[in-house]
Amino acid sequence: MSTLKPWYQVVVPREDLRDNRPLDASEFAVHLDHIREQRAHPDYLDPARFFERTYLTQSLLDLSSQVVRRLSGIKVETSAVFNMATQFGGGKTHSLTALYHLAKSGHGARNWKGVESILTRAQVKEIPQAAVAVFVGTEFDVVDGRGGEGEPRRKTPWGEIAWQLGREHTFAAVAQHDEQGIAPAGDTLRRMLPDGPAVILMDELLNYVSRARRTGLASQLYDFLHNLSEEARARDNLVLCVSIPASELEMNPEDQRDYDSYKKLLDRVGKAISMSSETEVTEIIRRRLFDWYGLPQDGKQTAAEYGAWAHDHQTELANLGGESPEELFLACYPFHPSLISVFQRKWQSLPRFQRTRGILRLLALWVARAYQQEHQKNSREPLITLGSAPLADQTFRDALFEQLGSDQLSIPVTTDIVGKKDAHAVRLDREAIDAIKKARLHQRVATAIFFESNGGQSQTRMEASVPEIRAAIGNPETNLADVETVLEGLTANCFYLNWDRNRYRFGLRPNLNQMLVTRRGAVKDQEIEARIQQTTLDLFKLGSKAVDRRCFPAKSNDVPDRPQLALVVLGLEHQAQESATKALIESILRECGTAGRTYKSGLLFIAPDYASSIIEAARNLLAWEDIEADEDTGRQLEEAQRRSLSQSLGRAKADLKESIWRAYRYVFLLGKDNTVKSLDLGQITSSMAPSLCDLVINTLVKDDEITAAVGPNKLVRLWPPALTEWSTKAVRDAFFASPALPRLLDADSIKRTIADGVTSKLFGYASRDAAGKLQLDRFGESLLEQEVEISDDLYILRAQDAERLLEPPRLEKLILQPSSIEVGPREHVTFKVSGLDQYGQGYPVENATWSAPDCTMSSAGSFKASDTPGLYLVTVQVDGLQVEAKVLVKQLVTTATATTAGKDGNKTEEEHPTGYAEKKIQWSGTIPSRKWMNFYTKVITKLASSPGLTLHVSLEAPAEGESASAKIEDIKSALRELGLGEDVN
After folding, report:
1. What number of other Cβ atoms are within 10 A of residue 383's Cβ?
2. pLDDT in tens, 111-159
């Protein structure tokens, strides 16, 4: 739509509208007498100008052509008498003015716009010039009549008509009848009529009849009109056109009777003419308000795009032409069809609304205001739309209320729509998103509702439907979904907008919103606080039953120290970002009254982000409840308002709950590092989870802060290393005491973990007997969850510990140390024997039987080697088990001689043993640094138990660069730790 030109760049208003000088309503109300006397507006006095701006409707063309034929002496397909039977302000006088100019000008009218079509329709070549008489009921005084200097005084309608038809000559024929107030008839009537063509135009007849009733002239006028009608029917070139009605709003019962009588008379002797159809009103308006020379191409493009849009959305819109909307937009340009049709569909039924005249007056003000430069800066609309009505302009509002018949709607308009700085629609647009603000959508929608519903007292149930509203303010760039958003805002704020079942209307009585504003001020802070607390409690009660709730704690012992997951709900006075809130959370986590808190990991805290929206929602709810409880107010409400009150009350309850949902977005809990951490749940709504508690739990489960259950394998991995048996109570409590462990959603779920672990032989289930000794109750057999008891006296054991209770330890293996040894002859060695049970654990050895053939062996394991070198076995037996050790007695080696003297005194040389012959394993070589650990594992460890093993290490490495000194210091430090020399070169 941005490519479409604004309407004011396509068509040009009349000069007076361009200069913001729109005609007054009285100037749209044509007075035939003023035209006759040359004191009307130039638009009506200049015949050529008049026809330039007059649209020849089918009715006006038919009337004009019949009158011209009759004046031309043609009776076929013509009538001599015409009853201008249209609504007040429906174009009657305008049509009479056209006849006046045609008859007065005769053949001089031929060049006026549209006259050629009249001649063609009448099938004549020229318009005969005719004598013309005009009688306007609102202008002719009943008592004084009319007559100026040099003129006779005319006191009756027939005297005035006779004077205008032929001055003194024709007036003389009825002078006596005029004086006596008696209607002429027969020859007298024929003498007052000219011989040639004549046109008698009578307007606003009933106004005169009403004023003349007391004088008797009213009944005489009826007789005169009857006589004149019959004479006109008899003649070939006399035409009588009569406009009877005044506004029905001004009729009394006598007026109504006279109106019915005159209408019946004229309908019997003449032809009723309706001067314009609904489809022709737009063309009349365009010619009256614009310098109109046909629809420009840019206007056709606008109509095409709007028509395509309307066709695409026809199921969502109303009154836009159905299957052919483009034709409707073409016919109405530069106006939006909804603007024109609202007057035809609804406003024309208002008693004071003057149909074409009223529409012209309002639209003249409308166009003049919209054409002003300051307005154009704010609007580039391709069409003049219903929502763009200049209600902010006092002159326009005055004209509007004049048509409505009352200015009582002034307060609703300026309060709810526009006219005051703080009008509700103005404020809502100011606070709206950019798309709605730029389009002033609240003001446009409210204005459309006003026109579609009008709200006048005479129209008790006029309403605007949503399709009508969409059609009135929509265009190819409008997001129609925004209309519903705007309607919600208007109904929630406006004081005089009433709605029921998607139908809207502005009325005179304040609606529930104004009552709400009044009652809101009376709501006490204590009531608000109590309602917020109760609603918050109700919301947090919903959801998981496994989680304890503790609401609004003031001190640490308000939250008990229990092995259970608990959600601590902080009140509005403890908002998430305040330091006092964090201090309270720290206090509750660390303490429970004067004692330290054990189960701190099981606590979850939730705090609100803000309080203002909750407080306002609570205030609204209490105000609605107060209105509902007020019986006097209830009796004054309409049925629709009662339904609206019920809806508003329900909406207020939902708003309070939703505001609490949105506010409670911050969760606090103990982190694995034993410090408090926070979690922002983000922008949350009630649609995200069944309850606030469930939302918190679901989020923490997803973040692995909470788990629904712990598997038995995981429990084994979490087993404290220092514990052999672990009480079931301690198992459960650990998940709520230590932040290192996951939090259990349900403390009793640990029973299922224990039952599954015992059944699958991952651990045993045990108790203590009377002597305090553990005894295995279940292991590797079915254990039901219901059979598991959480107690300090019941335990679970790792699988290996459970097996020991199931099958007591017994001696399974003997270990003899040393297992092999080398000794010299007669050398002593002590052997030690130890035992292992079937589980690989140490087992005491008692009553061991030792043996060492050919050597000496004590019962305590003391061994004395034989004198004879060789390999010997040491054997020990315990309870049928036997283990052996090898002892190698080595050969003594002689290394020195000594001379000794015998008894006989002779000296001899003897050899003395100085050691044993030893075999040694030696190796030297270079080992790559990356293979040192493999060398140690595969070589050195095999010799580690050999006596006399020595290792000589030589190490060389490059010592260059800036880090050499640091490396040397690191090596020296390591050598000191190993107790080795630190001499590093």
Report:
1. 24
2. 999 999 999 999 999 999 999 999 999 899 999 999 888 899 999 999 9
- Helix extents (H) in 19-78: 25-28, 32-36, 42-45, 47-52, 58-71
Contact 463, 504 (CB under 8 A): yes
pLDDT of residue 26: 47
pLDDT value, residue 375: 67
d(CA 97, CA 51): 10
* In contact, 112 and 139? CB cutoff 8 Å: no
Query: Is residue 390 packed enough to be buried (19+ CB in 10 Å), middle (13-18) or exposed (0-12)?
Result: buried
The CA–CA distances, whole Å, from 230 to 134, 221, 262, 320, 688 equal: 19, 14, 14, 47, 85
DSSP code of residue 24: P
pLDDT for 187 beyond 90: yes
Q: Kindly give, in sequence order, each residue whose CB lies less than 8 Å from that of residue 321, ignoring residues fewer than 6 positions away.
A: 307, 310, 327, 328, 329, 337
Both tokens assigned to 41: 């507006």
d(CA 977, CA 955): 18
Token readout for 171 is 């007036």
Alpha-carbon span 446 to 448, nearest angstrom: 5
Q: Measure the CA–CA gap between 588 and 580, rounded to whole angstroms.
A: 12
- Residue range 578-594: mean pLDDT, rounded: 93
SS3 612: helix
CA angle 217, 158, 237 (to 5 degrees): 140
CA distances (Å), 120 to each of 55, 100, 759, in order? 16, 19, 111
- Residue for token pair 């406006």: 494
> What is the pLDDT, as a whole number, of residue 81?
93
The DSSP annotation for 452-504 comes to: HH---TT-TT--EEHHHHHHHH--TT--THHHHHHHHHHHHH-SSEEEETTEE
Q: What is the mean pLDDT of residues 930-957?
A: 78
Task: Locate 522 and state its tokens.
Answer: 């009376």
pLDDT digits (tens, 9 = 90+) for 435-475: 999 999 999 999 999 988 874 444 445 788 999 999 999 89
638-657 pLDDT, tens digit each: 787 888 888 889 999 999 99
What is the pLDDT, as a whole number, of residue 278? Answer: 55
Q: Nearest to residue 891, comparing CAs of 946, 949, 945, 822? A: 822
Which residue in this structure is represented by tokens 């009552």? 515
Strands 198-203 and 131-136: parallel
Residues 947 and 890: their CA atoms lie apart, in Å, by: 14
Q: Cβ contacts of residue 788 below 8 Å, gap of 6+?
A: 728, 751, 754, 755, 765
Helix axes 337-345, 278-289, angle to 10 degrees: 120
List C-alpha distances in Å: 849 to 407, 862, 881. 128, 12, 10
Distance CA(252)–CA(270), nearest Å, equals 26
Q: What are phi and psi of 770, to 5 degrees?
A: -60, -30
Cα separations (Å) of 801 from 82, 722, 804? 121, 13, 5
Q: Which residues pair with 765 in a beta bridge?
A: 778, 796
Q: Strand, helix or coil at 744?
A: strand
| Three-point CA angle 789, 791, 796, nearest 5° | 75
Q: Given this model, what pLDDT does residue 962 score?
A: 62
Which pLDDT value is given to residue 302? 93
48 within 8 A of 42, measured Cβ to Cβ? no
Grade residue 893 by pLDDT with cuts at 50, 70 and 90: low
Where does residue 965 fall: left (phi above 0), alpha (psi -120 to 50 degrees), or beta otherwise? alpha
How open is the CA angle 595-597-602, to the nearest 5 degrees?
Answer: 160
Averaged confidence pLDDT in the chain: 86
Cα 226-245-223 angle, rounded to 5 deg: 15
